[in-house]
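Re: the multi-chain job from yesterday

Posting the exact lines I submitted so nobody has to dig through the queue logs.
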Amino acid sequence: MTLNVSGLYKSYGGRHVLTDIHFGIKSGIILGLVGDNGAGKSTLLKCISGAEQFDHGQITIDGVAHSVITPELSRSIGIAMIYQNLDLCPQQDVITNIFLGQEKTIRIFGQNTPFLNRSHMKYLATEVLNRLGLDVDISQNVSLLSGGQQQRIAIARALISHPKILIMDEPTAALGIRESKKLLDMVRNLKMQGIAIIFVSHKIQDIYDVSDRILMMRQGKIITDLNKNDISLAELHKIMMNEEV
Amino acid sequence: MPREAKISALVLIILCGLGGLCSDVFFTSANLVNILTASATIGILSIGASFVLAAKKLDLSIGSFMALTAIFGATFGHSGTGIIGLTLLCGVVTGLINGVMVGFLKLPSFIVTLAMLGLARGVALVISDGDPIYDLSPSVIYIGQGEIFGVPVPVILFALLAALCGLILNYTKFGIQTLCIGDNENACARAGIKITRHNMILFSLSALLSAVAGLIYMGRVNAADPAAGAGYELLAITAAIIGGTSIFGGKTSIFGTVCGALILSVIQNCLTLLNISAYYQEILIGLILIFAISLEKVKIYPRGMR
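And the result, structure tokens for all chains:
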């Protein structure tokens, strides 16, 4: 599984937010994406997931080039995104949140009916939560769960569609130290399962701990594309601070 | 089922107990049938209102649609089947108009349905020239006045529609997505749920239920009245809210809504039995609505019950 972004441009009302973006990622790799607020990270992720349309450029997945990505296409080709705000429905239960927009229905004579297949959904939800090491009552409202548990529900939703590429936007932003560590372990685990992960964070330490490659963005451009082994955490900090390395 | 729905069931039982204490007539079979029949029209409207509210929208046009659909059916239908068919068709079409304006044009549902409240009533008055249409087909009258094994047809229709809509809400993709849209519409859109199409179906369902309520009303009074259903939107929304539907979206229960409609009907019945003026009933309904919304807004319900 490979994803290549080439010559991607995006602007809002004449203001360029993404300029000539090129990078690639393949299975079992964690790509860390860092940059200041307004660097264009979130816009880039939204363009890949189809939530925003890019102006020019191509996104090539497994050799197939796409000049337009919609949320439906993105999902069908195996891209899943976890937004910073998690996009949960707080008054609904765990199982409903995990299957949001991908509800399983009862099939009769090979045709889908409008009726939910709750037992199948329950089975799949339990399986994915076990994979993530989360032991919660799936009939519980997600608003009653902790921040870390809610984060894992959002990850479970992404995993239920068996993604090949998982995009995580600031997944540790709202977590404490212990929950962040658990999440980073989980991300490494997902990598071992062959999923390509794009991991965005303001926390340089988290990016450095978990990534294989690090992209740095500034003012809508990629200014650095490095293997983690080629740079120290201190040097990464210096680049972030716009200092000489 | 929201805990508020269970509370509304408890309130209904307590009110019935009080009704029995206040009047010997309350628990007679004739009076109980009266309560059920009176609750059918508002109950069916409130089921539609519950779906719309659950999706964090508002439909203020349901009372006017009751009148418009009935007038349309009675004017252009030349037989019982024709009247019923055209009434229901008019319901779907008017609902689609609401749905298009809310879904495609992204107009606020409050404004759209407020405008349609006046517009639909106006069209009903224009078509009928302001006069009720009498002498309807026996099959239409049967819908409002008929009985099956001693149970009034409106009550049977109310029960069947409540069961069907409860099934849709709790056991179908559409029902669960309605609650999710009310909870977090942006998340649903990003999850690939087609919000525009969903809103169109929601408003069509609400208007179709208004048309059924219009048919029952028309059959009960043996006339298609352009003034029918005036103020019913308030009653229907009140019934939904006291049954546990959240005005802030994401939560509803058809069982609770049915209880809400019955609570309103029992209150009105008790006040009538106590010879209290209908004017006070209006005041009481308004106060109940404010109280029910306040319960949720100020979070009087204990944690876990909200």
